[in-house]
């Protein structure tokens, strides 16, 4: 647990301010009908974090942890290779803490992403396909760090603080918000990008309930976890990169659930159109995966997941186009009804500070 007390240290004061904008998101109990039966799936509204995604938790935890341990100095430049939410989180939090921020990313990323990161005051270092694309971005960021002692590399794919962020905040929040509903989770599912969410939440929930199922989720079109390497292409941005991250230990997890990217898109569209929940494609995938886990355990099983981000970065993608319905998809059989939003914790007047 990172304890940053009331202090005159301006850096710590900034951390305390940011802490109040991250985590403690509502848990949504989403009621729907599937094959003629009423069901409920629980999802953390992570799109309500400071920059609109779950990655704020990881970025905050890594920066606060490194500062506390003396590994990050106030004048250091934060350098990260990323194309998505991580870049936006490090840009916002890094700049708010007074650091220069440099983001290495493939040069074919959408203009919205580039503009968002730039608008937050970070420098974009584009990397072409010829220079190695995503792998090239990682190599350049490491070279940049090697050339200067004043560079901080968060290393989200291998940094244990990424897992800790979820073990100490997201996991306990899910447990305590389900308590308000007098429930305990039977399963947790989450799409794997770095694996921080599934490993951290999984570890915490398994400590509380040994029999819980913890399922990682991947796109059927590109099953990196099942094969160990990059296969095919998929449209669920933020998950299933080109390798199994160092912080992921598949032995700690239950079987992988595969979701079609078209089904994920249709589900995300349905959440926005029918419930006003404007979430990204991986959130649609997580909902479908949660339903698949529930189908295995029984219609009344308590299954939790996360809505990792909002739809704002996907407005120029297939999320805003007509998606064809294919045989085997689950989303067409789901009729969304309403949701309850649990903001409080049992025995707490308001939300509880969790960092
Ligand atoms: N969904 C989206 C949209 C993401 O950006 C990420 C992070 N890459 C994930 C899911 C997966 O989260 P994690 O990195 O914790 O596995």
Protein architecture, described:
This protein is 36% helix and 18% strand. Strand 7 (187-191), helix 7 and strand 8 (213-219) form a beta-alpha-beta unit. Strands 9-8-7-10-2-1-11 form a seven-stranded mixed sheet. Strands 5-4-3-6 form a four-stranded parallel sheet, sandwiched between helices. It is globular and about 60 Å long. By secondary structure, the protein is α/β, with parallel strands linked by helices. The protein has helices at 10-19, 55-68, 85-96, 111-119, 133-146, 160-180, 196-208, 224-227, 261-275, 281-297; strands spanning 27-34, 37-45, 77-81, 101-106, 123-127, 151-152, 187-191, 213-219, 257-259, 303-307, 334-342. Helix 2 (55-68) crosses helix 6. 4'-deoxy-4'-aminopyridoxal-5'-phosphate binds at residues 53, 55, 84-85, 191-197, 238-239, 280, 282, 308-309.
Give the helix/strand layout.
Blueprint: H1 10-19, E1 27-34, E2 37-45, H2 55-68, E3 77-81, H3 85-96, E4 101-106, H4 111-119, E5 123-127, H5 133-146, E6 151-152, H6 160-180, E7 187-191, H7 196-208, E8 213-219, H8 224-227, E9 257-259, H9 261-275, H10 281-297, E10 303-307, E11 334-342
Parallel strand pairs: 2-10, 3-4, 3-6, 4-5, 7-8, 7-10, 8-9
Antiparallel strand pairs: 1-2, 1-11
Helix pairs in contact: 2-3, 2-6, 3-4, 6-7, 9-10
Bound molecules: 4'-deoxy-4'-aminopyridoxal-5'-phosphate.
4'-deoxy-4'-aminopyridoxal-5'-phosphate is lined by residues 53, 55, 84-85, 191-197, 238-239, 280, 282, 308-309.
